[in-house]
């Protein structure tokens, strides 16, 4: 283990048993806390694609509205796709899209009241929201060979997380 991991040895890992088997962390004895996490990422697109999104001229429909729904759905279903995540009560999801000249930035803020954090939910919201954008614009992003040489999702990260004990 590296010093950055926060664990001195394998016995400090909370997602493994003493025998090294994967397990879900028991959070049953933890107090409920108000928690919030914000994640962000970006998708790089051709400037013409950004303009088509702004003008609502993408053949598949309203790109950002569809991506917003996808992001929220992903937040609500994170426990089904990340094996060791707990199902948590989501109390709020906010999405914010920022259209730039050659990219779209997305921030997803998730709030919950419970025994564990919601950063994975925020990350799932960002990655799915950006994947939905890609899906909605792929027809106009393809080059003459049917490839996506400049389209990319990057810089996905947790911007902040907070916990307020009741």
From TrEMBL:
Keywords: Lyase, Molybdenum cofactor biosynthesis. It catalyses: (8S)-3',8-cyclo-7,8-dihydroguanosine 5'-triphosphate = cyclic pyranopterin phosphate + diphosphate. GO terms for biological process: Mo-molybdopterin cofactor biosynthetic process. Gene3D superfamilies: Molybdopterin cofactor biosynthesis C (MoaC) domain. GO terms for molecular function: cyclic pyranopterin monophosphate synthase activity. Substrate binds at residues 84-86, 120-121. Residues 1-31 are annotated as: Disordered. Residues 24-163 form the Molybdopterin cofactor biosynthesis C (MoaC) domain. Its EC number is 4.6.1.17. Signal peptide: none annotated. Pathway: Cofactor biosynthesis; molybdopterin biosynthesis. It is an enzyme of class 4 (lyase). Homohexamer; trimer of dimers. Belongs to the MoaC family. HAMAP family: MoaC_A. This is Probable cyclic pyranopterin monophosphate synthase. It comes from Natrarchaeobaculum aegyptiacum.
């Amino acid at each position: 283990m590296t010093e950055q991991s926060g664990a001195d040895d394998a016995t400090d890992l909370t997602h493994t048993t003493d025998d090294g088997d994967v397990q879900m962390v028991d959070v049953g004895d933890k107090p409920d806390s108000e928690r919030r996490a914000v994640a962000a990422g970006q998708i790089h697109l051709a400037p013409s694609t950004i303009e088509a999104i702004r003008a609502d001229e993408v053949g598949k429909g309203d790109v950002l509205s569809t991506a917003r729904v996808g992001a929220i759905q992903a937040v609500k279903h994170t426990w089904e796709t990340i094996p060791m995540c707990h199902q948590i009560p989501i109390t709020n999801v906010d999405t914010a899209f920022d259209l730039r000249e050659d990219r779209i930035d997305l921030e997803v803020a998730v709030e919950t009241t419970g025994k564990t954090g919601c950063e994975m939910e925020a990350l799932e919201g960002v990655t799915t929201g950006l994947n939905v954008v890609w899906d909605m614009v792929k027809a106009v992003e393809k080059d003459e060979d049917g490839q996506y040489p400049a389209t990319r999702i990057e810089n996905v990260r947790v911007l902040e997380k907070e916990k307020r004990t009741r």
